[in-house]
Amino acid sequence: MKKIILLMLVSVFAFAEPEMQFADPKPSFDNPRKWVIKLRSAHLETVNHMLGSIYNVLKVYPPETIQISVVAYAQGMRALRKDYDPDTLARIESLRQYDVEFVGCINTMDTMKWKEDEFLDDLTYVRAGIAEVIERIAGGWVNVTPY
Predict the structure, then answer these.
(1) Region 36-143: CATH code
(2) Backbone angles phi, psi at 140, to 5 degrees
(3) Statement: residue 108 has pLDDT above 60
(4) For the chain, which residues make up each domain, given as ranges?
């Protein structure tokens, strides 16, 4: 009987998820983690892998303890166009409901002769996407590109 109970306990604990160990200072409302992601590809699998990684990170951090900003430039701007893959655009819109920010590069738009009305509504725009990434990093944001 003891062996059965022991086996049951081992089975339960073997499948339990390990708790995330946050570094000090711990993420909080007043001191959230800040993650900037470079989106420079419009390859569907790459974009969806990035979005999946964002969802996974959002599962780990308590609400309002992480800020995520995706800065799109070059070919990555295509992923924010209204004519991109509808399922992927729906995932982007879903992430925006969790306050994930998507930032577009005006230089890329000018080069490609694209207009704001061709992109998702209510995007944030900056003149140079890569310069935005540089400044975010200089301001303490973590730069991890998950693909």
Answers:
(1) 3.40.1260.10
(2) 100, 0
(3) yes
(4) 36-143
